[in-house]
Write a structure and sequence with these properties.
The protein is an alpha+beta fold and 135 residues long. It has one domain (2-134): Lipocalin (Beta Barrel), CATH 2.40.128. It contains two helices and nine strands; from the N terminus they run αββββββαβββ. Strands 1, 2, 3, 4, 5, 6, 7, 8 and 9 form a nine-stranded antiparallel sheet that branches. The longest helix has 24 residues, at 2-25.
């Protein structure tokens, strides 16, 4: 009987911790802090690059620098995979190399880690993108 109670407790804690991780990711804008080690983030039209997750629909979207983007995503444990990324096609007068690099990095992401108000996206062991959240 004690083994069953312990098993139920472990399963309950696991479910709660997974749910709290998801809730920490949802309903927040995650603003780009770092792109492949660079911290000079270009902001065009007073709209910083960001990402938002909708856990219910498994959709993600945001601003890549000039254009908005959107795609599906899939999470299992600490693994994350983004679907084919679509963007708007706004003409930007500013240099959009950052946007290209942002979208390319996002397409290579295979895992994530959250620490307080930070979201880290990785390709293997390599840190590609770091975001800070805002409710």
């Amino acid at each position: 009987m004690k083994k069953i109670n312990l098993l139920i407790l472990i399963v309950t804690i696991t479910i709660i911790s997974c749910a709290s991780n998801d809730n920490n990711m949802e309903n927040r804008k995650w603003f780009l802090l770092e792109l492949e080690g660079e911290t000079d983030i270009v902001i065009i039209n007073e709209k910083p690059p960001y990402i938002e997750f909708d856990l219910e629909s498994s959709k993600v979207g945001g601003n890549a620098t000039c254009n908005n983007f959107f795609t599906d995503y899939y999470i299992e444990n600490n693994s994350i995979e983004f679907g084919e990324i679509a963007t708007t096609l706004m003409a930007c007068m500013e240099d959009t190399k950052q946007e290209y690099r942002f979208l390319q990095a996002l397409s290579r992401v295979d895992s994530f880690k959250m620490e307080e108000d930070r979201l880290f996206l990785f390709e293997g062991e390599r840190e590609l993108l770091i975001f800070i959240s805002q409710l």
